[in-house]
Every structure is written in C-alpha cells, then in structure tokens.
Specification:
It is a single chain. By secondary structure, this protein is an alpha+beta fold. It has one domain: Umud Fragment, subunit A, CATH 2.10.109. Strand 6 and strand 7 form a beta hairpin. The termini are far apart.
Amino acid sequence: MPLRSATSISQFKIDFVKQVLIFLWEVFEIAVIAIVSVIVIRTFIVQPFLVRGVSMEPNFSGGDYLLVDEITLRFREPERGEVVVFRFPRDPQTFYIKRIIGLPAETVSIRDNQITIKNSDYPEGFALNEAYTNSGGLTGGEVMYEMGPGEYLVLGDNRSASYDSRNWGTVPRDNIIGLAKIRLWPIDAVDIIEAPSY
C-alpha cells in the first residue's frame, strides 16, 4: 500500500510539472507573438510621434502625441498640404514634422510674405492660400526652389518660428516616414488629421 501511494504522488508531481511547462510554453508563445506584432506594426504600419517645439502651432503643439501612418505613402506620393514626419536631411537620426508645400517638378517662390507655385497645370503660377497657418498665410523670407524629381518643400505652420525648407532646402522622398494621421493626446484635442483643400 505505501508503494502505491508513493507511485501516485510521483505521478501527480510529473503531471503537475507537465502542466506548469505547458503553461509556461503558452505564455512564451503569446509573448513572442505580441513582440513580433508590435515590431511589425511599428516598423511597417504606424508609429507614435511626440511633437516638440512650436514650429507647427496653432495646429500642433509641443507635447501632442500623434500616430504616423506609414502605409499610405507606400501606395502613393505625398500631396500638398499633408503633414509629414521625415528624417532631417542634414541629420537622418533626427525626425521633423512639417507640412508639404512644394511638390516634385514645381517651382516654389516665397517673396513679399506670399508663396507662389508654378507647375505644368499652372505655368503662370498661383498664390497658395493658407489660412491654417499661425500668421494667416503670411510667409516670411525670400527664396526660390526649382524642385527636382522626388523633392518636397516643407514648412512649419508657425512660419515665424519654424526651421524648415527656407533654411536648409528640400526633403528627398526617401526621407519621408509617413503621414501624421491621428492626434491621441491631449485628450481634449483627439482627432483625425486631414490635409486642407486648396
């Protein structure tokens, strides 16, 4: 009788160890799947971005927490008015957020507080109306860019306090990470970010 009891205790221990190992294996599998999913999502689909500084006011302020859509621009080119996050051309480890103003093959001139754009549709040029900016559309500086293939001119919405294409030139297409799509923070300003219509 004592022998049977010892056998049954032994079997109980073996079963218990098996159950613990199965549980630990399932936890490991879930953890691996979760980690891989997060890596894939952050690398190829969407990633968070924290706004720093005042260059995009009044539309984005320091401390705004955004989600950047990395998928859309895999299927089409950026459009005028969209807010993009990109690697700074002079330091690819630094990320900036700005609004696209000039597109490839366009000539963009800034003079007398006005942006004028010439392209194949408007060879005589048109003045860009930007009521969404901090200055009501007035843009200081005096520059002209003839955009090459895959080049974009970007400006901050707070034109008087933005370090942008007026200072350092255009952004290559390959530097653009994605579109600012959703503001998650602050909670009272949560919204979906849309490009203005011109």
